Amino acid sequence: MRTLNPDRSLGFGMGLPLVALQLDFLDPALLPLLLIVAGIGLSLAEALAPGAHFVVLGVALLAAGLVGLLLGPFAGPIVLALLVFLFGALALYGYREFDIYGGKGTGQTSDSDSLKGKTGRVTERVTPTDGEIKLDSGGFNPYYAARSLHGEIPEGTEVMVVDPGGGNVVTVESLDLVTEDEIDRELRRGREARGDERQREEETERA
Q1: Bigger pLDDT: 71 vs 24
Q2: Residue ranges of region Disordered (predicted)?
């Protein structure tokens, strides 16, 4: 799953008011409302796809839109763009400082492969066709649709993700059925995936 880099998202958010100004197809008075709607939409998208980093831009747009409504006619496109940048910088700082997704210093992984090897608990009975689990340190929305490899897994059972399945429906196995060697192997793969993700993020920040 491709995600939005929280640092680069600020530039994208600042561009929204300026694009509207250049195209001259939108009443400037409606720009704050547009930012509010976009901010709410991105925040909801983050809830549906945790780790996609929409929350930083969503908060920035929402806050800038609300302040824009208070400023009234003084809230032109340039002012709104500056507000998006200001609130985006504050949101990004809070995102990192308060470690929203856990694992401070490691960054939130941005691809479904990182789910492999993670453990959690069954919240709705898991069968080969449906079910739900809650992952440990699963971020803003730790609940995932799940299915089992073999048979049924009752509610409350501790499980491990053996196949992330693109992040939409994960395949899990009860920890009671997973041998110690398999657990170590899956955890090692998870650590390697997180290490690769950190390296990619560092390269992106340096670029």
Answers
A1: 71
A2: 181-207
pLDDT digits (tens, 9 = 90+) for 39-95: 888 888 877 766 556 778 888 888 888 998 888 878 777 888 888 888 888 887 776
Q: Average pLDDT, stretch 160-184?
A: 75
What is the rounded CA–CA span in Å between residue 107 and residue 195? 10
Residue owning tokens 């600042």: 14
Domain 112-206 listed as CATH 2.40.50.140: yes
Q: What does the domain layout of the chain look like in residue ranges?
A: 6-97, 112-206
The helix, strand and coil proportions of the chain, stated in percent and rounded to the nearest 5, come to: 55, 15, 30
Please give the C-alpha separations between residue 24 and each of 19, 35, 80, 82, in angstroms, as whole numbers. Answer: 8, 16, 16, 19
Please name which of 142, 205, 144 lies closest in space to residue 172, comparing C-alpha atoms.
Answer: 144
Write a three-state SS string for 129-173: CCCEEEECCCCCCCEEEEEECCCCECCCCEEEEEECHHHCEEEEE
Nearest to 152 by CA among 172, 170, 168: 172
Closest by Cα among 170, 175, 125, 128 to 145 = 170
Chain centroid, CA 100 distance in Å: 10
pTM of the model: 0.40
The mean pLDDT value for 125-144 works out to: 83
Candidates 70, 75, 41; CA nearest to 58 is: 41
**3-state SS, residue 172:** strand
Structure tokens at 33: 């409302």
Separation CA 205–CA 194 (nearest Å): 16
